[in-house]
């Protein structure tokens, strides 16, 4: 049985539109909470040898050092990660001594990142994401240059770019909310996860576009809408099996991988799910809608 995907494209656009608008509002109102890799500051990992003090007790013990907003993240059974503004070695040792007064502990690591290094890293990350998006768009437009009708090859590239923005904005919106209410920060692993989402999503979209190209070459250009629906039906099983087989280990990482991998895997889960949705319900139907808009002009 062949499902008529493009018939219900207004429903798909409405769902995506609501999610995108909500994400943009969250990003505008809450913003993103960047980690010290981007803002600069100190990162201290402590392992308590006895009982781990509460976050409130740790915060109170360090209030005299005027460290700004202290992020306290428990890890494992007795560990904790502290993030605060940059300090010199003398203050670092005083902080460590103060924590030992609460409960005997062992310092696992200490890292200081200057604000200029953090800003440079943020700029490079932004450039990397823009270059990835442009490279993907140009590649798709070039790869589909032989299928210039009934939809121009560059429109395949633009459509994939729209789907990619969809796939990135939704996870960013979620992390804006998590950053506001749960102090979840955007770190290097999360950036890596978002770049992975771009690659995963565009791969799924290219598979569908390639099947559309094959069906156009085989059946002709007359029934573009039918060719898109046929291509989506032919690739649905592959798309879903790929997504589900990827999500299973990601959910395992989220629930059992500890704090270090929790939000990295969450970014991948949200992004890959969003990417699967856009590849199936946005990219192909959008080509058909674009074709209809062009026909109305003439």
UniProtKB/TrEMBL annotation:
This is Protein-export membrane protein SecF. It comes from Candidatus Staskawiczbacteria bacterium RIFOXYD1_FULL_32_13. GO terms for cellular component: plasma membrane. Belongs to the SecD/SecF family. SecF subfamily. PANTHER family: PROTEIN TRANSLOCASE SUBUNIT SECF, PROTEIN-EXPORT MEMBRANE PROTEIN SEC. NCBIfam families: transloc_SecF. Coiled coil: none annotated. InterPro entries: SecD/SecF_arch_bac, SecD/SecF_bac, SecD/SecF_CS, SecD_SecF_C, SecF_bac. The gene is secF. GO terms for molecular function: protein-transporting ATPase activity.
């Amino acid at each position: 049985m062949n499902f008529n995907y493009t018939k219900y494209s207004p429903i798909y656009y409405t769902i995506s539109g609501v999610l995108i608008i909500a994400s943009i509002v969250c990003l505008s109102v809450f913003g993103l909470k960047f980690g010290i890799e981007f803002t600069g500051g100190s990162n201290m990992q402590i392992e308590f040898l006895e009982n781990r003090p509460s976050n409130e007790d740790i915060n109170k013990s360090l209030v005299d050092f005027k460290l700004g907003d202290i992020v306290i993240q428990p890890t494992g059974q007795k560990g904790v990660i502290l993030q605060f503004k940059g300090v010199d070695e003398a203050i670092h040792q005083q902080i460590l001594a103060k924590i030992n007064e609460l409960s005997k502990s062992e310092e696992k690591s200490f890292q200081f990142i200057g604000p200029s290094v953090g800003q440079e890293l943020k700029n490079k990350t932004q450039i990397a994401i823009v270059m990835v998006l442009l490279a993907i768009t140009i590649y798709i437009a070039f790869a589909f240059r032989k299928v210039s009708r009934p939809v121009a090859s560059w429109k395949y590239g633009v459509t994939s770019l729209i789907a990619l923005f969809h796939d990135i904005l939704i996870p960013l919106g979620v992390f804006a909310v998590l950053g506001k209410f749960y102090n979840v920060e955007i770190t290097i692993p999360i950036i890596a996860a978002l770049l992975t989402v771009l690659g995963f999503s565009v791969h799924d979209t290219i598979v569908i576009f390639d099947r559309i190209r094959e069906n156009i070459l085989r059946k002709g250009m007359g029934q573009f809408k039918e060719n898109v629906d046929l291509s989506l039906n032919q690739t649905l099983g592959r798309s879903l099996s790929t997504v589900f087989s990827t999500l299973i280990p990601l959910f395992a990482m989220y629930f059992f991988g500890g704090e270090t991998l929790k939000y990295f895997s969450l970014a991948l889960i949200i992004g890959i799910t969003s990417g699967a949705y856009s590849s199936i319900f946005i990219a192909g139907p959008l080509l058909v809608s674009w074709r209809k808009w062009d026909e109305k002009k003439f």
